[in-house]
Design goal:
The structure is a single chain. 0% of the residues lie in helices and 34% in strands. By secondary structure, it is mostly beta strands. The chain has one domain. Strands 1-2 form a two-stranded antiparallel sheet. A hairpin with a 5-residue loop joins strand 1 (24-33) and strand 2 (39-47). It is extended.
């Protein structure tokens, strides 16, 4: 249960994706600075064509 919450949260189902419908480029450790000075690191899977054309 999260502090200040009256009901327990329902656990989300985790789905593992083994293949993507488009070729992807993986960006490891994309660092985003937060306002409080913390740095948030993430791994991003970006469709290769996303910069040239929008994808669903």
């Amino acid at each position: 249960m999260i502090r200040g919450q009256s009901k327990p949260m329902k656990e989300a189902a985790v789905k593992t994706v083994a293949s993507f419908p488009y070729p992807v480029r993986v960006i490891e450790n994309l660092v985003t600075p937060m306002r409080d000075g913390a740095r948030l690191a993430a791994r991003v899977w970006l469709p290769e064509a996303a910069e040239e054309e929008p994808l669903p």
